[in-house]
Amino acid sequence: MDNSIVEEIDHRAALKKNVLLWSVCIAITPMILVSCIILYQFRISYHQRVNAHLEELVAKHRQDIDTFLKERLGNIQVLAGNFSFENMSNERFLQERLNILQQNYGPVFVDLGVINFEGFQVAYAGPYKLKHASYSDADWFKKAMANNSEYYKSDVFLGLRGVPHFIIAVRRTSGDKTWIVRATIDFVYFNSLVEKIRIGETGFAFILNNEGKFQTHAVHDVAPDKSPYRDFLKYNNAEKKEIHIVEHADASGSTSLYVASFLKHGDWMLVYQQKSSEAFADYRRAVSIAIVIVILGCVLILSTAIILTNKLVRLLTKIDREKEMMNEQIVETGKLASIGELAAGIAHEINNPVAIMVGEAGWIEDLLEEEEFQASENMNEFKRALKQIHIQGKRCKEITHKLLSFARKTGSRPQDINVNELIEELVDLSAQRAKFSNVTIVTDFKEDMPSICVSQSELQQVFLNLINNALDAMEKDGGDIRISTRTDGNRVVVVVADTGPGIPSAVLNRIFDPFFTTKPVGKGTGLGLSICYGIIKKMRGEIEVQSTVGVGTTFLVKIPLPED
Amino acid sequence: MTEKENLTPSTRIKLLLVDDEEGFVNVIANRMSKRGIDATKALSGSDALKAIRKQDFDLAVVDLKMQEMDGIELLRILKKMIPEMPVIVLTGHGSERAAEDGMEYGAYDYLTKPCEMDELMEKIHEALARGR
């Protein structure tokens, strides 16, 4: 492929790439930037909203549980405060009190017991056979008997009955006697208080004691990585008054939200946890929708940019080609003008010697008329030769006159032109070449052709091009070129028909394209016919081609007559 | 010797022939001589002006394109000096426009080189007849 064509293709590809890149960058960058900023702000806002909601939820339930524990403590404190050891030691009386509590509060209280200062249970009301049980070594008993508080709420433990429960113990001292009223709180009931804290599929709550042991059941499996709980338990007393939220990823990469709040004076920790994917589901859905919108926007921008870039590059290419054609046309016109100047110079230089030559021939004729030469036997031959010199001198004169006439018509200013005369001159100029190519040029002109007002040099260029193309096509085998003129309505029609090899139909519709040529490399630029097309279009005319392979090619040039 | 060659000097036409092509001037002068014209040859505008100061001429034939002083300029000077003298313009340039310019400056007519002697003689006689 021609280097210039390769360069043009490379240039066009580079231009396309640059325009596309810049237009896409300029359009997409602000959209992505704004989307990122909005999503970032939305993320912060959404996280704050979720955290606030969870804090409120956990705070409310902590308060509920604390209230429950305080109320149950109050119930037992009322019993211990209002009734004497003797009354309370009466199992029948104690059973009545238990019944009343169960009637008022449901199955919250499992049993009641009265324990003397030695840890011996002196009275018991409840479903287990625990009368006379000894709690002297029990941890809860020791803590309840300690002087720092009048009551004690234990952690959940199995104890003598072998089922999970916790107790509320109130210590009383009357006279020299110290005794304890103990109530067992139903674990199932207490557990249900915590279990009901549920949000969605993965949000649940549970209670841990200071040592990290579960005080209620966890609905779901808690994370195998216990580090968030351990971190919460390390808080000091002041920090334990706050509600803490952390987001933590486990070993599998799954992240969860952990909300911790302390109750029972910091002995227990209410933990709420939920998978982040669920807690922030709405946010993630919004992000997904935003990403889809941004991607669709990008695709739209990209496709629009590609379409516009293609259009722009096609337009620029067209402009470039038109510019190139115009330059070529200017060069061609310039060449014609140079040829014109050259022709004028040659005509002048030739005319003088020819004039002398013809003059000298005339002088010989004059001299031959003198008597002494009349008898010469070669007189007839002398006269024939001299006549021939006159004829050829006249021929030279005609040739130089045609050259000069051509030279005068190299301007591009529109002027009244008789097409017949213009073509006749071009035919004369091409006659020598036609003779060498064994081509006969026949003209068939309509008489009294009206003038058209166009640039003579440009019209010359068009017909010279058509005649030269026809001569090129018939250079090897010879043939005929028939040039006819006629009028068709308000148009002048010139038909240039040759009997050359014809143009294959596959390329016929491309012959007016710039740079399209069927001539061998180096012989044709592929611009001749496209320039002709441009010139005729500029004259508001038309140029058409008809061709049959093996028969010949016919060009029809239609040029409008002046309107007035 | 032809009949016209035998004309007495007083009846022969006196013509100033101006052209920078010596070969052309010589052959035309010779041929004119055989046709009853005494052609004084001038190879430039200045030669022509020198000749015209020395003698009177019935007519001048001037080439338009000359090296030193072109035919138009010479024509203008001749027309100022001897307005009644007819001047025929010859042009090897072949430019009708230049010849038409010559007509504007008072040339009788123009002929393009190479021209036939008969044609030139016809123009000369026409010009002289018009002048009389």
Automatic annotation (TrEMBL), chain A:
All residue ranges annotated as the Histidine kinase domain in the record: 345-563
Transmembrane segments: 20-40, 286-308
Domain of life (superkingdom): Bacteria
Localization annotation: Cell membrane
CDD domains: HisKA, PDC2_HK_sensor
Topology relative to the membrane: Multi-pass membrane protein
Protein name: histidine kinase
Automatic annotation (TrEMBL), chain B:
Database matches in SUPFAM superfamilies: CheY-like
The keyword RNA-binding is annotated on this UniProt entry: no
Domain Response regulatory: 14-128
UniProt-recorded Gene Ontology molecular function terms: phosphorelay response regulator activity; transcription cis-regulatory region binding
Key word Repeat present: no
Superkingdom, natural source: Bacteria
One Pfam family linked to the record: Response_reg
GO cellular component, one term: protein-DNA complex
Protein name from the UniProt record: Response regulator receiver protein
Modified residues (4-aspartylphosphate): 63
Gene Ontology biological process terms in this record: regulation of DNA-templated transcription
Keywords, sorted A to Z: DNA-binding, Phosphoprotein, Two-component regulatory system
